[in-house]
Structure formats: C-alpha cells, structure tokens
Amino acid sequence: MNTRTAKSQRTRSIINNQESFKGGFMAKKQDNEREEKIKQIISLMDLMLEDVSVPRNVKKSVEDAKKRLLEKGDPTVRAGAAVYYLEEMSEDINLPPHARTQIWQILSALESICNQ
What we know:
By secondary structure, this protein is mainly alpha-helical.
C-alpha cells in the first residue's frame, strides 16, 4: 500500500508539472500573437502619422498611443493605455472621415488584444 501511494503521488506530480508547462506555453504563445498584432497596429498608426490631412492634435494622440505600445510590459495593459489615448480622438469634429475610420480600425484591433 505504501509504495502504491508513493507511485500515485509521483504520477500526480508529473501530471501537475505537465499542466503547468502547457499553461506557460499557451500564455507565451498568446503574448507572441499579441505582440504581432501590436506591430501591425503600429504600422497602421505610422500611416496615419504620415497623412497630411490628419490634424496635428489627432497626430499627437496617435503618437502618444504609439509610444505607449512600444513600451515594455504586458501587451494587454499597453493596448488598454493606447485605447485611452485614441478613444477621445475618434469623436473629434475636425477629424476627416477616412482618418476616423482608421482610428476605429486601430481601436478595434487594440480592443481585441484587451479581450483575448
């Protein structure tokens, strides 16, 4: 009985180690996917920053959001901070319609990172 208990404890220990390994692997995979999405969002932001028809105040908010995304740390937190900078700008009355659509697209992508 005693050896049987020891074997079952070792088996449980091995299973727990495998599960924690899987959990760590999945989290790392999700972070890599989030980082890839952030790179795509930054390229969309760069296009907005190069657009001469976008007002300076909007470019400033996009630049601030981009800086926040480029910082180190949790991708979800960085995306949430970037949403904070951009959400207000999406309602700016001086924003050209095509730029508003781009901001909505960026916001949607950022929110998908936050909700993963």
